[in-house]
Amino acid sequence: MKARLLVAAMGIPLLLLVLIWAPDWATALLAALLSIIGAHELMTAVSGPEKAKRWVFLPALMAIFTTFATYLDRTPTSSMYRTRWLWLAVFVLFWFICVILEYGKERPLTFLDTCTALFAGIVIPLALGCLLRLRMMDYGSGLVMIPLVAAFCSDSAAFFTGLTLGKHKLSPHVSHKKTVEGAVGGLVGGMLGMVIFRIIFYLCTVYPLDIGLCLLLGLVGSLAGQLGDLSFSVIKREYGIKDYGKLLPGHGGVLDRFDSVIFTAPVMWLILHSLCNF
Question: How far is residue 52 from each of residues 60, 83, 92, measured CA to CA in Å?
């Protein structure tokens, strides 16, 4: 518990510094770094340490190009913008060339390895890249916090509610600690967190976010975050691992800490992009 609190005390201010006060490119760099580490953790869990060590460079490069393709959306007239997805396609095609060349050898690249690499190199950075999309909106230095507020407030509320009131298991085969009461507490915590965020956001920007929108973001964000947590827990159970990594003492790896954000960030961006004029 001491290590967990220490990491939180050091990590949260650093995260706030990058997302709120640093330029947009710092958020892009953070999303790319988290995606690279997440790609290594996922490939290690699913494909094994040996294959991950040998092949993770390809999904890592995919993650970099996927993240910075989002960053290039701000300069749609540049030549790099026009060719951004071409480079990603090159890496995907090169992966399949490697699959063909490795077939029949002692440790070939399987269909499962391919799905894992593509998920790690494209889906995860696209999801975390939505933090960057939020950051590049009007009032982006505040809006980028919405997925984190919704996910982390929900997670904390679910933990303490489950600890004190939890009786009915939510999904015992996936997580024996999570309870229905905790999940409901998480929904309330997500909405309450967004109400508090609305107050702080107004004090900083004098822009009044709609209270109904904030409650919707808190509710949907909590649902998405809990789904993300359970989804990545299924992978851990299937492959018999406790944590994805040891990068964050007391928290595990990037995928252990940001699993809910991977689901919450794109949902929050889609809602704000569709319903609001930022």
Answer: 11, 28, 17
What is the distance between the alpha carbons of residues 188 and 194, in angstroms, rounded to a whole number?
10
* Measured distance CA(144)–CA(187) in Å, rounded: 20
Q: What backbone phi and psi angles, to 5 degrees, belong to 169?
A: -65, 135
- φ and ψ of 178, to 5 deg: -75, 135
The 3-state secondary structure of the chain reads CHHHHHHHHHHHHHHHHHHHHCCHHHHHHHHHHHHHHHHHHHHHHHHCHHHHHHHCHHHHHHHHHHHHHHHHHHCCCCHHHHHHHHHHHHHHHHHHHHHHHHCCCCCCCCHHHHHHHHHHHHHHHHHHHHHHHHHCCCCHHHHCCHHHHHHHHHHHHHHHHHHHHCCCEEECCCEEEEEHHHHHHHHHHHHHHHHHHHHHHHHHHCCCCCHHHHHHHHHHHHHHHHHHHHHHHHHHHHHCCCCCCCCECCCECHHHHCHHHHHHHHHHHHHHHHHCCC
Both 146 and 124 in one domain: the answer is no
pTM for this entry: 0.90
Same domain? For 132 and 167 the reply is no
Which segments in the chain show pLDDT lower than 50?
none
**C-alpha separations of 197 from 27, 142, 189, 208 in Å:** 20, 9, 12, 11
| Residues 160 and 48 sit within 8 Å (Cβ to Cβ) | no
Closest among 268, 257, 255, 258 to 116, alpha carbons compared = 255
Last residue of a domain, one of 136, 157, 179: 136
Phi and psi based region of residue 226 (left: phi greater than 0; alpha: psi -120 to 50; beta: remaining):
alpha
Residue 81 and residue 58: Cα distance in Å, rounded?
Answer: 21
- Structural domain span for residue 276: 138-278
